[in-house]
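User: For my dataset I need records formatted as: sequence, then structure tokens, nothing else. Please produce one.
Assistant:
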Amino acid sequence: MPRAGLTTDRLVAAAAELADEVGFENVTLSALARRFGVKDASLYTHVKNLQDLRTHLALFAGGELIDRIAAAVAGRAGKDALAAFAGAYREYALTRPGRYAATQIRIDQDLVAGSPTLRRTAEITYGMLRGYGLREPDLTDAVRLLRATFHGYCALEAAGGFGAPRDVRASWEKAVDALHITLENWPREDGDGR
């Protein structure tokens, strides 16, 4: 019988808070159960196992991230949209480190296909990139470039990996400028230059 007041949504929200406090990799069912003052077994009514909890957390955090990005890019196009997208991404990665780490896990492809959050993420990301005139397979390649650049930069910044005296934000803005130039001059697979 489910414990009164304990729901999957409450567990996932608490797991998100815990991830930001102790790191995504340190979120366990035992730690979450302690937070609610229940035994581990009480959680199995709401999540199958730790992997299931982490998948729920990844989708929850992905929804938060894309909501911030969508708000930032609304009404913008081209370089303005890219800069807003990048800024919202970076801010989330740096202020919600555990949740952000959850967004980086691989999710079962069956869940990906049925997830409104992941569909919305694709729609907003691809929509922004279509503003550069990109089509498949160039869209997928451009998404991978943005994700690798944003993730790599944020991971290095969060770890204190930039030791040069230059302002980290100035370097971030220069990286976004460089991505804009790259997207405008994308080496299109269709070869027609459009």
